[in-house]
Amino acid sequence: MFQGPSTPYPERLRTFSGFWNEHEATARQLAAIGHVYDRPPLEAIEEGSRCVTCSQFVRRESSIRALEGSLGHRRNQDGDYETGFGGFAFHFPNCERLQVKIPLDPQATLGGLHGGHRIGDLRERWEERSSRTTRSTTSNSEVLQTSPLFSLPTELRLEIYARILPQLDEVTDIVSLHRDSARVCTKTALTKANARDYSKANLLRCCKTIHDEALDILYTNRTYRFGSSKLLYLFLRNIGHHGRQQLRSVDICGPSREDAIAFSLLASCSKLRSLTLRWTRPTLLMPQARPIWVTDSVAALLEISGVHAVEFASDGPDVKSCLKEGSEDAAIVRAQLTRPKGESGSIRWVDGNMDV
Ligand SMILES: [Zn+2]
C-alpha cells in the first residue's frame, strides 16, 4: 500500500508490525517521527525505514543504535557525547516532519550533550556489572544460594534493599541536571547541598539476583513526574530497556513537540499501569490549521494501552485544559489508554482529524 505524506501515525506504526518485534521501541519512535517500514524485496541488501514526507532512508541498524542504544555508547574517544546520529539524519533538511523533535538530536538540545549522564552512568555500570555476573552465574549462583540472605523470605529481602537504596519519594520529580542538557536526575538530588552519595547504589552491583530484585523497588509504588515530555524521553532513554520494563507510573505535562516520540517510547513500557496527564491546551486538537506535531502528539498518546488508572490534573486553577475530569476529550483519552495492552485503538485518523 502506498504510504504518502498524510499517512497517519497508527498506519505508519502498522507498517513495522511483525517485523520489528525485537525492537518495538525503535519502531514506535520511527513511526512517531514520520517513518514507515519498507518491506524489502527478497533480493534487497539494505533494510530500513523511510520518511513518508521527504523519503529519507535510514538503515535499520542505524535507527536502533540512535533510538534505543545505550546513551553511554554515544561518547567519542575524548569522553564527550557524539553530536548527531553518527553521520546520518532521519530527514532531509527542511522536511516538515522535523517539527516533531527528537530530544537527543543536537539541534534539539542545542549542543548540550557533553559531560556525564548521572542516571545513564549508573545504569551503564549496573548493566556492565550484571552482565559480568550473568556470565559467571554458574559458579556464583551456588555460593549465592547458600548465603543466609537468600534463606530469608522475599519480602524481608525487599525490606532490606529498601533501607539500603537511596530514598525516593512516592512521587519523584525528574529534572534536567543542567539547562539544555541530556542529563537527568531527581529534583531532590539536584537541590541537595551535600555531596551526593552514590555508594548506596552499590547494592545493585552485588550480583544479578540482587540487582533484579532491588531494581524493582525503584519502580514499584513510585510515580515519576516530569515537567515536559522531553524530560520523560531522556529519562526513558537513560534507564534503558530493563528500566523501561519496570516502570509503573508516570505523571507528565503536555503538550510539546517532543510528545510524539516520548509517548511512543512510553508505549513500549509493558508494565505502565498509571498515567497522570497535565495538559495545558484548551482543546485536544486545535480547531483549524493543525500542525503535524499536534496531530502526532495526540495520536501517539492514544497509542498507549494497558493503563489501569488515567488521571487528569492541572498545575493551577487558571490552567485551561481540555483534559479535565468529566470532559469529552478526557473520556476519549481514558477509554483508549485503558484498553487491553496490544489491542488496536478505536480512533481513525482522516486528514489529521480524529474519527471516534
Ligand atoms: Zn522527512
Automatic annotation (TrEMBL):
Top-level taxon of origin: Eukaryota
InterPro entries: AN11006-like
PANTHER family named among the record's database cross-references: F-BOX DOMAIN-CONTAINING PROTEIN
Protein name per UniProt: F-box domain-containing protein
UniProt organism field: Recurvomyces mirabilis
